[in-house]
Structures are given as structure tokens and as C-alpha cells.
Design brief:
- The structure is a single chain.
- By secondary structure, the protein is of the alpha+beta class.
- The protein is built from nine helices and twelve strands.
- The two termini are 41 Å apart.
């Protein structure tokens, strides 16, 4: 494998698309879901039937969900370890056009800390535990065992690629892979906005905080509106579910008012639109992580 993503004939004479396909099959055999990347190191776009996510998307790492498109059509969510899919005719054209091989770190139970320059590398050496390292064009990928929410620009020159994201495959790297440390998880925690205090706030002993809602009916209306937003989604269901979860947790996640019943109502609405229970759990966890809950 070449250490960059320039389309060029391998030294063994294999055509580039054949080399990419071989690399993809090797990754899949190792449990790492690959996907082809086109010029610009970006995934291939939607096919005509899925354009604009009109199909509802393919929401999770196992390719389950409302969309049954067999092409490389949904970026990280299309990445798979199924060799019959990877080598199938719908994917063949993508491998012929691909400039490099990508993979879904979260689908392999991994997190990539993408260090984009020398300063970022220096910071990592002084801050993070050592792990497997892969050289990139401008910096390094530090790969850890474990998954977390992905987030770009967590600090200058540092991106995190894990769930709902993809990374370039640049070779096996060197060093022993270690467990994902709390220091990396903390990088993706976004500081929540300061909430404006509401008048007449009442204490909620079970939640240990202050309730910003004057009556339970306020929360019930909020949950009902969230259910309706999910139910009314005609496209981009995956994105809508995550955005709705994020909005509910932003408004109600810190005061102790949300109950298992409320959460079950949201999950039920999402699953009625084709989302899997696993995706619901992941989307809820990612929303909590983003809000620092």
C-alpha cells in the first residue's frame, strides 16, 4: 500500500483499482469496513435513487435500515466487511475511479486521532498515551481501540474520526494499539451553552438540578413535538433523528425531567421510520456526548 492517496500504478504492476480492491478485501477480512474514496479523498455521492437522501439513508455500520441500495452510496454507512458486496458490480466502477481506500473506524471498534501537522504531533506526544501510529501526508494517525463520537477541529490540527466518520487507510502502521484514553474522549466534549435562567424554576430532587419547566405539560408538549418531527421526516431520517435527540437533550437533559418513558417514545418514533434500536442508542449517546451530559 502506498502511504498517500495518489492514483498511481503499484510497483508490482497491478492496476490501481485492482490494488484498491485487494486492500479493501484484506481490510474486510480483518474486520475493518472499507470504502473507496474519490478525488479529493471524499466518498462517492448518492446514486440517482438516493440523491439528497430521499431513500431515508443507511443509518448504521451494519448497513441495516430503510435503504437497500447495493452501491457505495452512503459514505461511512455503506462501508462493509462483506466481500461479496465489496467485489460486486455496483462497487466495481467506484474502485476503478477511486484514488485511495478509506475505512469506517467506528465499524471496526477503533478511533483515529488525526494529527495534521508537526505542532499537533508534538502536542500528542506530550499529552496522549502512545499507540499505533500511521504516517500521513502532513502528519500522523494515532489509532486507539474503542469508539467515541467523531468531531473535527477539537484543537488546532487535530480531528477525531470514529463513529459516523471515515479515515484513509495508509497502511498498518507501527507500535502497539492501546485502549482509547479519557484524554481523547474529553476532546470531543463540547462545552454546553450557558442556559438562561427561567423564572419560577422549581427544584426536582430526583434530578439533582433545577427544572426549567413550570409544569409537566411543557415537557410532554416538547416530546410530542419531537415525535412529530421524526414522524414527518420524508428524507434524511438518520440526520433528523440525531438532530431531534440533540434538541430534546439540550432543552431537557440537565434538569432530571426526562424519564425512560419519554426516551422510549422517541426511540419508538425513530424505529417506526426504519431506524434500528442500535442506531437509536448510538444517536442518543452521541447527542449526550456532544452536550457533555
Amino acid at each position: 500500500m502506498t502511504p498517500d492517496c495518489k492514483a498511481r500504478r503499484p510497483v508490482d504492476g497491478t492496476h490501481p483499482d485492482e490494488s484498491h480492491l485487494r486492500t479493501a478485501l484484506d481490510l474486510a477480512a480483518a474486520g475493518v469496513p472499507p470504502l473507496p474514496l474519490r478525488a479529493g479523498k471524499v466518498p462517492f455521492g448518492n446514486c440517482r435513487a438516493c440523491k439528497g437522501n430521499a431513500c431515508g439513508g443507511r443509518p448504521n455500520m451494519k448497513n441495516a435500515g430503510p435503504c437497500e441500495c447495493s452501491s457505495i452510496c452512503h459514505a461511512w454507512a455503506a462501508a462493509t466487511t462483506d466481500p461479496s458486496v465489496i467485489a460486486s458490480p455496483p462497487w466495481a466502477a467506484a474502485w476503478r475511479q477511486a484514488v485511495c481506500v478509506g475505512y469506517h473506524p467506528g465499524g471496526a471498534g477503533l478511533t483515529v486521532v488525526d494529527l495534521d501537522n508537526a505542532q499537533a504531533i508534538t502536542w500528542a506526544h506530550s499529552t496522549l498515551p502512545t499507540t499505533r501510529t500511521v504516517p500521513t501526508t502532513r502528519g500522523e494517525h494515532w489509532i486507539y481501540r474503542g469508539t467515541m463520537a467523531s468531531r473535527n477541529a477539537v484543537r488546532p490540527g487535530v480531528d477525531i474520526k470514529s463513529t459516523m466518520s471515515y479515515a484513509r487507510f495508509l497502511g498498518p502502521g507501527t507500535g502497539t494499539m492501546t485502549a482509547l484514553p479519557d484524554a481523547v474522549r474529553a476532546l470531543a466534549v463540547k462545552e454546553p451553552p450557558t442556559a438562561r435562567p427561567a423564572p419560577h424554576a422549581v427544584a426536582v430532587p430526583a434530578g439533582g438540578g433545577e427544572c426549567r419547566h413550570r409544569t409537566p405539560a411543557y415537557l410532554d408538549r416538547g416530546i410530542a413535538m419531537a415525535e412529530q418531527r421524526i414522524t414527518d421526516a420524508s428524507s434524511a431520517v438518520h440526520t433528523t433523528v440525531y438532530g431531534t435527540f440533540l434538541a430534546v437533550l439540550s432543552a431537557h437533559g440537565r434538569c432530571g425531567c426526562l424519564t425512560e418513558t419519554h426516551i422510549a417514545r422517541l426511540f419508538t418514533a425513530a424505529q417506526a421510520k426504519g431506524e434500528s434500536p442500535r442506531h437509536c442508542t448510538e444517536a442518543w449517546a452521541n447527542a449526550r456526548t456532544r452536550l457533555g451530559l
